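Lecture 7 notes: from sequence to structure.
We start with the chain below.
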Amino acid sequence: MINSRKNKISAQDVLNGDVKGLKRLLPFLGPAFIASVAYLDPGNFATNITAGSKYGYLLLWVIFASNLMGVLIQSLSAKLGIATGKNLPEVARERFPKGVSIFLWIQSELVIIATDLAEFIGAALGLYLLFGIPMLPAALITAVGSFAILELQRRGYRTLEAGIAAMVMMVVLAFTFQVIMAKPDAGAVVAGIFTPQFQGVDSILLAAGILGATVMPHAIYLHSSLTQSRIVGIDDQEKKQIFKLEFIDILIAMLIAGAVNMAMVVVSAALFFKNGLVVEDLDVAFQQFSHLAGPVTAISFGLGLLIAGLSSSSVGTMAGDVVMQGFINKRINLYLRRAITIIPPLAIIAFGINATSALVMSQVVLSFGIAFALIPLVIFTSSRKIMNGLVNRKITTVLGWLISALVVSLNVFLVVEMFI
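Predicted structure tokens for the same chain:
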């Protein structure tokens, strides 16, 4: 249920039609901003920088298409929570045999560990690039920062949403500054967004990497949890109203996430591709930003990486709590969970494994979890027995299956290509 009387009245006033204009959105904004942090995962930084440096503005349309798909998938997750009052793992536990639920829990925990690895290493790398702090001490500082963000959740969902939204806006400002300093070709940017095309097999593979890594399993699990009891509708009519307003939240959040990802490609194209540089490591990107556009531009890149890593690491911990509670009806303290999930990235950093390589490998592990989140989501939201009045329209179900097939196929393709 809603945590404060003030927010409950505000939301109910909107549902009753007593509030007009943009103020109607205020009680419903927030959940999508938390979920959208997954779309700013540090693992995407390397992919976007590589895409821009190799192919200029060519693959911007892939990010645009990926975010359109993300809007549909996140809206299905949010709708499931609104319609049922349950999150995706809880519905799965009710509908699937116990053994299947246990399997889904184990694989989702592994996926979240991989997610946390990317986010943790990204934040530590940001500290290393900004302040020259060695990776292991930087990782320990990152751990302290992630605990601090989790403290926001204890203070209530509004405090957490405000904190995450503020961090997302810092990333937006960082990349806005970089775009201004890079002075990209506006015409080429527009053409890149709206003209689907490739240049050889390698560009197709990179496009598959961008698209396949866009949908994050933990974001799907988490979004349904964020909407399941935040604002509760008493009947189908109210639930439909809530979903329409939450959908606007999703559109805004995904627009911002998409714009940031595009900005990474644009800046890389304007600086690296223009100068004939192929950049695939984030530390090299940082150095080249400083060389080509000045130290302030490099600092803004490092800050964006640091903040994205910190904010997304806390979201990964929250998702871990959701899948354990949902699939097996068990819970452990969030701080204990955070402490446990710190161990793998600390070990990798201590062994001196290349940070960018670790980010790439984490995306491979993530690939295995996509199907186990996406397919149940489409099945459940297509069932009138489960969703009642919020059941998918036929076209929505068709699009959901097409996107699921595409994303899962691309992830399988990427895994095969990487190992072969």
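Points to note: The chain has a mean pLDDT of 88. The CA atoms of residues 74 and 220 lie 6 Å apart.
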